[in-house]
Design goal:
CATH superfamily of the largest domain: Ribonuclease H-like superfamily/Ribonuclease H
Bound molecules: iron/sulfur cluster
Number of strands: 15
Number of helices: 18
CATH architecture of the largest domain: 2-Layer Sandwich
CATH topology of the largest domain: Nucleotidyltransferase, domain 5
Largest sheet: 7 strands, mixed
Number of domains: 3
CATH class of the largest domain: Alpha Beta
Length: 508
């Protein structure tokens, strides 16, 4: 062995970007683990633990912090229990350390299964397996088959901790074996990188592929903002990438310079408003909304889709389980009442979520949402799950009015830059309502916060902080819709305040 100690993850880091590996070893002080990266680790760990439950007789090689103990324990397990599965079997060759997720004994040698939290085999899994298999082969371990064990999103959890069926095992022998001969070269090149100066590599697509790189801030620190036109082609709503490429190829970067006859009606509208710098609001929105009855409801859900299903009849990644909703109710005098449901107990939130929502939404009156297919789909799923609640839930779906297409057809402000997302619209109509000041500022943050709340090791004060963040975020989502509806109708802001007496937070 010579040079720096390597591991499978370090070699994968080098394959992603040599500079990443260099920084990882020589400038660890620059590493910044984002919430997203931490979440990815956490999910990978959780999925690995579930995979092990499928082989209850397996031997886990622990000794995470003591390499020689892990190597010795692996040797001992291979000799004394050749008939048993081994988890985290640890091997080293030429200074390269690997830990195999699963080694399963078989008639023609061990089956090596790499457990992945993704829903399919990715190209970098093949490199990963090749490094692992090469080290195992150099240790004279007989390998019968190499598999990637990824999440099967069709699996439906039936409860009681039974995760049989949650993984799909894919034989990757044909892809991996031809790569084994390349591994010594990868090791050599990675060592050469580490022995040299910091590689001069500019940020690019590799910074997110296959993983978000934790050195992005360092690498982007000198990037000088290239002067772009105020309105790039991206503002031209739903313009095909190929069309944009063609304009770019002809030197047109500025949305205002695209010949208007080449644009559709919405794109022409965006171009006109952007050029004039004056927002436009059509009276059709007011007429449409004015015809609707009171009370009016404004509803928004937060949901979670877990890699490892926690509640019965849910699927990995595929089930959007609602754990929170917010509802503002507006009377004819524009007085607002607020109700909210949030379950942070860790129990299945769906039944109570549905029951409380039925209570909060009454029997009549429009229910405004923003992008109706999301809320309608969640409500239909709840109706499927709870047949006794189905009539009430489906009646709710029948009352839903989508504010998004009404807004998209009738209002545009130059600052929306081609987007009608509520986060793009709100600053132009209600600058006092700010997502950027919240702890939980978007739907992705809400999922991360909820996962952290459910984690058994999260301290109580942190759970409370996150719970408050979720409450503020979801409340703002529905208040934003209220203010949008008022704006479209020309109703001044109601200073009566809102009543929050109907808020429910289910704790453990
Ligand atoms: S941020 Fe990008 S360029 Fe910098 S080390 Fe990471 S992958 Fe390489």
């Amino acid at each position: 062995m010579s040079g720096h100690g390597l591991s499978k993850s370090r070699l994968i880091a080098w394959k992603q970007c040599p500079k990443r590996l260099w920084l990882q070893i020589h400038r660890r002080d620059l590493l910044e683990i984002s919430d997203h990266i931490a979440q990815t680790f956490e999910i990978g760990f959780e999925v690995g633990e579930v995979a092990r439950t499928l082989y209850p007789s397996g031997i886990l090689i622990e000794d995470d912090d003591d390499l020689s103990a892990a190597l010795n324990s692996t040797r001992a397990a291979l000799i004394t229990h050749p008939e048993l599965p081994i988890f985290e079997a640890t091997f080293q060759h030429d200074g390269v350390l690997v830990r195999a997720d699963l080694l399963l004994p078989g008639a023609s040698g061990y089956r090596m299964a790499e457990v992945k939290a993704s829903a399919s085999v990715k190209p970098y899994h093949i490199d990963d397996c090749a490094i692992q298999a090469w080290v195992l082969q150099q240790n004279k371990l007989s390998l019968g088959m190499i598999e990637v064990m990824h999440i099967n999103t069709a699996f439906v959890y039936q409860g009681k901790g039974d995760y049989h069926g949650m993984f799909t095992n894919v034989n990757v022998d044909d892809a991996v074996f031809p790569l084994l001969k390349l591994v010594p070269e990868w090791i050599k090149e990675a060592r050469a990188t580490l022995a040299g100066e910091e590689p001069n590599i500019q940020p690019g697509l590799q910074c997110e592929d296959p993983y978000e790189c934790p050195f992005k801030r360092h690498c982007n620190r000198h990037i000088i903002q290239v002067l772009e036109p105020s309105y790039t082609l991206d503002i031209l709503y739903r313009m095909h990438a190929a069309t944009k490429d063609a304009f770019h190829a002809n030197g047109i970067q500025d949305a205002l310079l695209v010949p208007s006859e080449l644009l559709n009606e919405t794109q022409q509208w965006i171009q006109r408003v952007s050029h004039a710098g004056v927002p436009e609001l059509f009276p059709a929105a007011k007429n449409l909304l004015a015809a609707m009855s009171y009370p009016r409801y404004y509803l928004d859900f937060e949901t979670i889709n877990l890699a490892v299903p926690r509640w019965e009849q849910t699927r990995p990644y595929a089930s959007q389980v609602p754990f929170q909703w917010s509802c503002h109710t507006e009377e004819a005098n524009h007085h607002l009442k607020h109700a909210m449901f949030l379950d942070v107990s860790g129990n299945d939130p769906r039944r109570r979520c549905a029951e409380q929502m039925i209570k909060a939404l009454g029997y009549a009156g429009p229910i405004f949402v923003y992008f109706q297919s999301f809320e309608k789909s969640r409500i239909a799923e709840l109706a499927d799950l709870y047949p006794d609640l189905a009539p009430a839930l489906l009646a709710i779906n029948g009352r839903i009015v989508d504010l998004l297409p009404i807004t998209r057809a009738n209002y545009y402000h130059p600052e929306m830059k081609g987007s009608w997302s509520i986060k793009a619209v709100l600053p132009t109509i209600a600058a006092d309502l700010r997502y950027d000041l919240l702890t939980v500022g978007n739907g992705g943050d809400a999922q991360v916060a909820y996962r952290e709340i459910l984690h058994p090791q999260t301290p109580e004060d942190r759970k409370q902080e996150l719970t408050l963040g979720l409450r503020e975020y979801c409340t703002l989502d529905t208040l934003a819709m209220v203010r949008l509806a008022w704006f479209l109708q020309g109703i001044p802001i109601n200073k009566n305040g809102s009543d929050t007496s109907n808020e429910i937070t289910q704790k453990n």
